[in-house]
Amino acid sequence: MTKPFKIRDVEINPPLVLSPMAGVTDISFRRLLKRRGGIGLTVSEFISVEGLTRNNPKSKRQMRFFEEERPFAVQIFGGQATRMRMAAEMAEEVGADILDINCGCPAPKVVKHGGGSGLLRDYARLEEILKEIKKAIRIPLTIKIRAGYFDHTINAVETAKLAEACGVEHIALHGRTKEQGYRGRANWDLVRQIKETVSVPVSGSGDVVTVEDALARWRETNCDGILIGRGAMANPWIFRQVEDALAGREIFQPTLEDKRAALLEYFEMLREDMPEIPAIGKMKQLAGQFTRGLQGGALFRTTIYHSHSVTEILDRITEYFEAMASGRPYFGEGNAQAVEEEEAPALDSCEAARIGS
Ligand SMILES: Cc1cc2nc3c(=O)[nH]c(=O)nc-3n(C[C@H](O)[C@H](O)[C@H](O)COP(=O)(O)O)c2cc1C
After folding, report:
1. pLDDT tens profile 16-26
2. Where in the chain does DSSP place strands (E)?
């Protein structure tokens, strides 16, 4: 029976986590999603300890969060124990509820310095980092790992055991190897095996895009929590929908108006938080994901991708949603020729493999 769980005294209720995604889960995206409901824990993008401890303004900005996001975890990455400890202390100081260590990032520039998934093949370093951090902070320490480094060195259960022995209080597994990147399917049987092995709570990550996926993964693995990443970009209501299913309620279905309002809300948050050009860039990213599967969505994405100002973006959104609401065919901005299926590049696994975990 799926129920809320605790990471020490931090209640994760509902037991659903917005999975950290570099370049995506910034303060605006997290707030947008949290407001849609169903999220028990938000996590920052992975933050470089080298940046944090050298006062890099970008890294410091990445630690910001809103009270309404709580409980909130800061995720850091790096390969050097002293810097990891210093960054962990900074996260505690800014008020994070949980400190999470990234042991999954496959990016060469992260792995080269021993961080991210590099820690999966260097247990001495991992142990040193965990112990050093554990001594320094009072908030719970958690870890997010991959199945292993190479496809032939799958060691998630051993990594989980080591982490637990070092005082880690929650283990999240993305069931792909570093070598695998984002190819194939995530191995959820490893989540089951870890859950059977350790006594701290265990959550799984990978390929959950529907309510049914989430319910099936819980049934199969008996895990405590489920992380959803890419699925939340396409459907920000997925957490609420899973929560509805868990509570035996009718599952919420967003209307066109809900979608329009969410896009506009996001754009407003972005513009409050950053200059116009990056805000427009991020807006394009979400609009692209968000309208997949919607009628006229491909053309809408094309027109949004070709917009260069705030006004243009707002006009395109208005045109699209008005056309959808009235049942009129949508031809894009003053353009009678529908550019069928000219898909805007999705921020998907390729990009993810480059920057994320
Ligand atoms: C664009 C992108 C960026 C990511 N960045 C991070 C990250 O910063 N830290 C992390 O632990 N995982 C990161 N991941 C991995 C996700 O958290 C998640 O484990 C993975 O995408 C599988 O789950 P999903 O199928 O629900 O997306 C990233 C994934 C994507 C797609």
Report:
1. 999 999 999 99
2. 5-7, 10-12, 16-18, 41-48, 72-77, 98-103, 141-148, 171-177, 202-205, 225-228
